[in-house]
Write a structure and sequence with these properties.
The complex is a heterodimer of chains A (122) and B (112). By secondary structure, chain A is mainly beta. Chain A has no helices and eleven strands. Classes of the chains: A mainly beta (122), B mainly beta (112). At the A-B interface, strand 5 and strand 10 of A face strand 4, strand 5, strand 9 and strand 10 of B.
Chain lengths: 122, 112
């Protein structure tokens, strides 16, 4: 059974950095495209970032709201996807979900983590 | 960015009765090869979202057949033929024709 476990969330001041991790088990991580989706308190879902498997170039994509501040990466040897979040803003406060994209096109997220809460506040 | 508009935003349904949610896109989600990239997710209270429907009408593994998706171009519908108590939660549509992938606002379904 696939498991995605996020960690690294917490309370951070505006302008500071945080790195989220997503440990994947039960899947061949190297064959997985990974993505981060966030949900502000009481709000809807927002796609944040995406990284393709190395076999598809390992390229990355970002939402405009985080481009230049967030960096998604992966360590296939550890089966971990990361989200480095710099220059955090109060608007980044949300639960961050790690997801696995099934297939080769579109937001077909068949596995989700339980989410990790990031609170940006002074 | 493509905007998805869901209606209604909330729905109160009697168990055993049907339910329908609309998702309208600001642009066509049809690709030149004939595929259409519209997906539906359900988020139950306190849980992560779960995939229900992919590419308009494909029912994901394990999803009960009372859930069905339909539509084309810019207009899409999720139908529940007979609502059960376990179907309560917030339903989101999301488009995948182009980046950024964007979600609808969500439709909250509750039992009457």
């Amino acid at each position: 059974e696939a498991q995605l476990v996020e960690s690294g969330g917490g309370l951070v001041q505006p302008g500071r950095s945080l790195r989220l991790s997503c440990k994947v088990s039960g899947l061949t991580f190297g064959d997985c495209d990974m993505s981060w989706v966030r949900q502000a308190p009481g709000k809807g879902l927002e796609w944040v970032a995406f990284i393709r498997r190395k076999g598809f170039g390992g390229t990355t994509e970002y939402a405009a709201s985080v481009k230049g501040r967030f960096t998604i990466s992966r360590d296939d040897s550890k089966s971990i996807a990361y989200l480095q979040m710099d220059s955090l803003e109060t608007e980044d406060t949300a639960v961050y979900y790690c997801t696995r994209r099934w297939g080769t096109f579109g937001p077909l997220f068949d596995n989700w983590g339980q989410g990790t809460l990031v609170t940006v506040s002074s | 960015d493509i905007v998805l508009t869901q209606t209604p935003l909330s729905l109160s349904v009697t168990v055993g009765q049907p339910a329908s949610i609309s998702c309208k896109s600001s642009q066509s989600l049809l690709r030149s090869d004939g595929k259409t990239f519209l997906y539906w997710y359900l988020q139950k209270a306190g849980q992560s979202p779960q995939l229900l429907i992919y590419e308009v009408s494909g029912r994901f593994s394990g999803v009960p057949d009372r859930f069905s998706g339909s539509g084309s171009g810019t207009d899409f519908t999720l139908k529940i033929s007979r609502v059960e108590a376990e179907d309560v939660g917030v339903y989101f549509c999301v488009q995948g024709i182009g980046l950024p992938w964007t979600f609808g606002q969500g439709t909250k379904v509750e039992i009457k």
